[in-house]
Please model this.
Amino acid sequence: MTSGATPGAEGLAAIEARMDQRRDQYALPEGHIAEAASPWLPFVPHVMIKHLTFDVRSNSAVNVLWVQAGGSLGCHRHRGPVSGYVLEGSWRYQEYDWVGRPGDFIRESPGRTHTLVSDEGMKTVFWLNGPVEFLDEQGQVAEVADVFWFIDHYERGCQEQGIPINRSLYL
Model:
């Protein structure tokens, strides 16, 4: 509002209608990604990934990570915050004393270095903000995965499997 006055009922309705027009003019369409709309793709040995969305504006990506029993994602460092929600199984970071189980929500601060392992297997939804640095045995950056890396991984995987690229994953 541009003035300190409280609008009447008609004023609120007019403001809401105007905001709806702005939203429709600039906002991306609502999205729905069906289970079959994104394939499981190999990530590293014993780890698969299902990409759910890519937001190039914020360098963020959402995916489901599936680690098979005994699998590991390897040592990595996030340069932005990460949120996770455990769907199945359990997993842990070798460096911490907690175990993520179904229904658990995980928050990660930027700059932490850890090694994800799953003894029994797991599936977890992750929302990644910013790049992930994968580290070698000496703790040196071996590879950086940002939203464009994840897009490339998805598109190459689809091409290799003969699956059409689903543009509804892109924001």
